[in-house]
Amino acid sequence: MQIIIDNSESLKSLYNLVENDQKQFLNNFKDEETILEIKLSEINELKMILNAQELDKEIDIYNELLNNFNFRVEKFNIHYDNQINIHKNIIINKIVDLLKEYSLENNVDLILDANNYILSNNSINITDFITTKLNEIIIESNFEKYK
After folding, report:
1. Which of 70, 90, 102, 137 is in the most buried spot, having the most CB atoms within 10 Å?
2. pLDDT tens profile 103-128
3. Is the whole model's pTM more than 0.85, yes or no?
4. CA-derived radius of gyration, the chain
């Protein structure tokens, strides 16, 4: 099942959409990360100059910026993980439909994946067949761009 999902043209296409959508945000995150690194360096230099109270203020400001940055990165990652999982579930449903169709057409009562069989013969491996059929289906993607 996983091989079929991974070889799905639909999923590959989604990965391209995700990658293109992420580019701008990843560049912005890198810029912000650079600013945070500079801010941390400044704090380390200020350790010798500022008193403890002023240094704590600078550290608090840095920590707030860092927490905010980490929150946005996590939200960004969760968004794309959700989009990919939604699409994978659609693919799984299509695969199940294809397996049902194959089962009916070939009088097969039981279909197992590679993790659930005891003994098998390659002549009954339908992975390539299902992959081909799946790639013939146009799977609509409701991909949501990150905001």
Report:
1. 90
2. 888 887 766 666 654 444 555 678 88
3. no
4. 25
